[in-house]
Design goal:
Helix content is about 35%, strand content about 20%. It is an alpha/beta fold. Strand 14 and strand 15 form a beta hairpin. Helix 1 runs parallel beside helix 9 and helix 5 packs across helix 6. The radius of gyration is 22 Å and the shape is elongated. The two termini are about 15 Å apart. The structure holds 6-O-phosphono-beta-D-fructofuranose. The site of 6-O-phosphono-beta-D-fructofuranose (F6P) has 13 residues, from strand 12. 6-O-phosphono-beta-D-fructofuranose binds next to strand 12.
Length: about 350
């Protein structure tokens, strides 16, 4: 079937993940070899659209990058052309301007008919704004957090769980040797998937997730009872979005210019201090943070990135508008959902 379009742009936005290069490769090779579509790589997400930083991508440009972490196109989590900082008003408050129409004209001038947008929720909401202005975008969701509605598993989650599990295994032996409690904080924003999976996989004694408020007294009783039974150490895995009963999430910083301004972090330290104070058992906090997003993707994420990247291009070639490619079922069905809308539970799109 002849492709509905001839030229597409591809960009990666938001926090990075190990598989982004694998997805760019799949998009580029599928476009060129399967559909005869030209591909333009856009640098640093929508920042590159604003600043016209784009380059044609050939098959050679994406050769050998399948296993490389990060994104060779670069990423930006803070650029929203619908809300560009434009100085301050007389009260000293930041003012913003919407330059999306200008961006749309810039893309059209280069013959770019649609974008493959690889990103998280912030990037997808920027993309959906462009869709409403008539710039077609198909999204490939990126998040280690596995918190996407309509997608049973997101790319990056599996590698993040593996990295966290390996770290927890290492912390297990050191906790045991020193008869300590070690509280390990993992990313995940408001979703406890990474903590839950890595915690179960590593045999952590306590797993604390945002979906269930934790009871400090119960955790301390459990740690004490293990100690009395001769297990003089405990391994605790806590998700960064967790909070104690009746408490608030621990916010590390707020960045008002970012689409998602809240940066979580610090609950591990807080919990470790509380446990040491209440139980008298030496307790340490370890934050895995961005380590979960670095390095090479595992086999499962490479396969997912390849499948979803290829499907995004197929959808564009078929003439689809404003879709988000997702994984449904047990990873054996590819679907697509309305970009940034509640996903349809139906069959593959
Ligand atoms: O959404 C991915 C994620 O890694 C979250 O788990 C984490 O809360 C956030 O991004 C960190 O963002 P940043 O890279 O801006 O610190």
């Amino acid at each position: 079937m002849a492709s509905a379009i001839k030229k597409i742009g591809v960009l990666t936005g938001g926090g990075d993940c190990p598989w982004l290069n694998a997805a760019i490769r799949a998009v580029t090779k599928t476009a060129i070899f399967e559909h005869g579509i030209e591909v333009v790589g856009i640098e640093d997400a929508f920042q590159g659209v604003v600043e016209h930083r784009m380059k044609p991508l050939g098959a050679g440009d994406v050769s050998g990058i399948l296993t490389h972490g990060g994104t060779f196109l670069g990423s930006s989590a803070s650029c929203d052309p619908g809300r560009m900082p434009a100085g301050t008003n007389s009260q000293g408050e930041m003012i913003f301007e919407d330059i999306r129409e200008e961006c749309a004209r810039g893309l059209a001038k280069r013959g770019i008919e649609a974008l493959v947008v690889i990103g998280g929720d912030g990037t997808m909401s920027v993309a959906s704004g462009f869709v409403t202005l008539g710039v077609n975008c198909v999204g490939v969701p990126k998040t280690i957090d596995n918190d996407l509605v309509g997608s049973d598993v997101t790319i990056g989650f599996s590698t993040a769980v593996e990295v966290a599990t390996e770290a927890l295994d290492r912390l297990h032996t050191t906790a045991m040797s020193h008869h300590r409690v070690i509280v390990t904080e993992v990313m995940g924003r408001n979703a406890g998937w990474i903590a839950l999976h890595a915690g179960v996989a590593s045999g952590a004694d306590v797993v604390v997730i945002p979906e269930i408020e934790y009871d400090l007294g119960a955790i301390c009783d459990f740690v004490r009872s293990r100690s009395q039974r001769g297990k003089r150490f405990s391994l605790i895995c806590v998700s960064e979005g967790a909070r104690g009963k009746g408490g608030e999430r621990v916010v590390k910083e707020i960045d008002p210019s970012a689409p998602d301004p809240i940066r979580l972090g610090g609950v591990g330290e807080l919990l470790a201090d509380d446990i040491e104070r209440e139980t008298g058992i030496a307790t340490r906090a370890v934050v895995l943070g961005h380590i979960l997003r670095g390095g090479t993707p595992n086999a499962s994420d490479r396969v997912l990135a390849t499948r979803l990247g290829a499907r995004a291009v197929e959808l564009l070639a078929e003439g689809a508008q404003g879709r988000l490619v997702v994984m449904q079922g047990r990873g054996d069905r590819r679907g697509s959902a309305q970009l940034c809308a509640q996903a349809e539970a139906g069959g593959p799109g």
